[in-house]
Amino acid sequence: MRIGGRIVRPGAVIGGHVEIDGPTIIDVAAGNRAGDDIIVPGFVDLHCHGGGGHTFTIGDAADARAAAAFHLGHGTTTMLASLVSSPFELMRDATRGYLPLVQDRTIAGLHYEGPYLSDARCGAQNPEFLRDPSVEELSKLIKVGEGAVRMVTIAPELPGAAEAIAFLREHGVLAAVGHTDATYAQTEAGIAAGATVGTHLFNGMRPPHHREPGPVIGLLDSIAVCELIADNIHLHPGMLAFAARSAGPDRAALITDAMDATGMPDGAYELGGQEVIVADRVARLARNGSIAGSTLTMDVALRNAVAAGIALPDAVAMAATTPAQLLGRADEVGAIEAGLRADLVVLSAGLEVKRVLRAGRWQ
Ligand SMILES: [Zn+2]
């Protein structure tokens, strides 16, 4: 199969064709422009709680499949399923329940957003379930997961955080700094212990101050990949562009942080045992008005990033290549290169999704 158009590759957009055999890209050939479609690699979303009325947060495998299918329709071909702060039993059962989805590659693994988070910066996380980092819990969950647990968000200022981060690193699980009231020094300590990700930079964090730079500057000025929610609600477009420039496209990742209400009408929804009201695309906790997850999809995130002034190849790197590298999957997905899985999104000149190809099959 040949797909022609303007192909977005690392650092450049070229006219030409992508040659596909079965599930694999076998060649990318420049020349003979074939229309104005824009061809980008399938998106890789590191942080997503659900969509299309379905959620990853309750541990229901059928619902999780439906959530992944919803996002696939918006171009996301690789994703982590994010839980929110929950009792240990729910985390264990969800991890076990999602194993078949990891094995058949519906999802690339699980992300635990919590429960080891700051009470002061818990945002829409349920404070009832927050607790200090526990290597004992993590070791049980990693064992149950058989490789499915891929990322854990931790507030580095909590007691036991450094030990938990080091433990995750030893076991090949990404440690992310997030929902944190850490100082700059505490953030640096978390990174020194092995954290390599910042969970939705700016959101759920102590804001930067010129005499206490806090986690935002600590993460931007580190080796960590910084997640950014490009929905124009969680972040002003100017802040998105500034953070992307500051980290560079190889250390910035667009995420959705989407909840089940994504793609659904306004109304009442649920997140981690709490009521969320969605009005005009903005999801807020019913009890305190805190912004909850987003109603974003990766195609919209890409459009917003480009509209914010980020060059298309850089925005695509942030939506696919960089998160694939972080997951250790760059030899399989995240770019349009011979030998990689044929995951492509065909976009119109206005960056609207026309068709999605996953492992060589139109969706
Ligand atoms: Zn989240």
- Counting copies of identical and different chains, the oligomeric state is single chain
Largest sheet: 8 strands, parallel
* Count of distinct strands: 20
- Please state how the strands of the largest beta sheet are arranged side by side: 5-8-9-10-11-12-13-14
Helix and strand pattern: EEEEEEEHEHHEHEHEHEHEHEEEEHHEEE
Number of helices: 10
Unreliable residue stretches: none
- Derived from helix and strand composition plus strand pairing, the structural class reads alpha/beta
Shape designation:
globular
Helix fraction by DSSP (H/I, runs of at least 4): 25-40%
Radius of gyration: 19 Å
What distance separates the N and C termini? 15 Å
Quote the beta fraction. Answer: 25-35%
Bound molecules: zinc ion
Mean pLDDT: 96
Describe what this molecule looks like in 3D.
By secondary structure, this protein is an alpha/beta fold. The protein is 28% helix and 27% strand. It has helices at 61-72, 88-97, 99-103, 135-145, 161-170, 184-193, 214-220, 237-247, 298-307, 312-326, and strands at 2-9, 12-21, 24-30, 38-41, 43-45, 50-51, 54-55, 76-84, 109-113, 149-154, 174-177, 197-198, 225-229, 252-255, 267-271, 274-279, 282-285, 344-347, 353-358, 361-362. It has an 8-stranded parallel β-sheet with strand order 5-8-9-10-11-12-13-14. The protein has a 7-stranded mixed β-sheet with strand order 3-2-1-4-18-19-20. The longest helix has 15 residues, at 312-326. It is globular, with a radius of gyration of 19 Å. It starts with a strand and ends with a strand. The mean pLDDT is 96. Zinc ion is lined by residues 47, 49, 82, 113, 257, 293. The site of zinc ion has 6 residues, from loops.
